[in-house]
TrEMBL record:
<dbReference type="GO" id="GO:0000139">
    <property type="term" value="C:Golgi membrane"/>
</dbReference>
<dbReference type="InterPro" id="IPR004932">
    <property type="entry name" value="Rer1"/>
</dbReference>
<feature type="transmembrane region" description="Helical">
    <location>
        <begin position="140"/>
        <end position="157"/>
    </location>
</feature>
<dbReference type="GO" id="GO:0006890">
    <property type="term" value="P:retrograde vesicle-mediated transport, Golgi to endoplasmic reticulum"/>
</dbReference>
<feature type="transmembrane region" description="Helical">
    <location>
        <begin position="63"/>
        <end position="81"/>
    </location>
</feature>
<keyword id="KW-0472">Membrane</keyword>
<keyword id="KW-0812">Transmembrane</keyword>
<dbReference type="GO" id="GO:0005783">
    <property type="term" value="C:endoplasmic reticulum"/>
</dbReference>
<comment type="function">
    <text>Involved in the retrieval of endoplasmic reticulum membrane proteins from the early Golgi compartment.</text>
</comment>
<feature type="transmembrane region" description="Helical">
    <location>
        <begin position="41"/>
        <end position="57"/>
    </location>
</feature>
<dbReference type="Pfam" id="PF03248">
    <property type="entry name" value="Rer1"/>
</dbReference>
<comment type="similarity">
    <text>Belongs to the RER1 family.</text>
</comment>
<feature type="transmembrane region" description="Helical">
    <location>
        <begin position="116"/>
        <end position="134"/>
    </location>
</feature>
<protein>
    <recommendedName>
        <fullName>Protein RER1</fullName>
    </recommendedName>
</protein>
<dbReference type="GO" id="GO:0006621">
    <property type="term" value="P:protein retention in ER lumen"/>
</dbReference>
<keyword id="KW-1133">Transmembrane helix</keyword>
Amino acid sequence: MEGASGDASGAYIALARWKNDFSRAFQYYLDRSTPHRVERWLGTLAVALIYLLRVYLIQGFYIVTYGLGIYLLNLLIGFLSPIADPEVEGLDGASLPTRGSDEFKPFIRRLPEFKFWYSITKAICIAFVMSFFSFFDVPVFWPILLFYWIVLFFLTMKRQIMHMIKYKYIPFNTGKQVSVVHYLL
């Protein structure tokens, strides 16, 4: 009786040790990938193309792909939005400059680039794994889902671009920031 209990605790300890070693190795390689932005995105693009090829070849899992598209759209909105949204939060000094005389404040994203990349990659991998289980393959008429997603994408992007224009911010670095006065002189 005691031997069976000892075997179970030994297996649990071995599993916990393996999990710890795996998570450390995973975090090590994740940390090492941080400065390699282009390579990370190319890898994610390759994984996305493999997933899309799988969905195309098996002619299914359109609901999973639609859910993935909605999630990726949500991540994109977080990536393009400032951390301190002037529309939601009160103007307490931590807002974006709205006039030329305002002090320049760098754009800080609500969702940083690395977390954006990691979340996209993880979501595509999860959708890929889901495509191996037939109970996720709900039969739907995919052109309607595609049309609805395109409409949702354009309406959401229109709203986001109007927000950018209203509060005068650009979520991308275009080089060294120079004040408007510098261009006039």
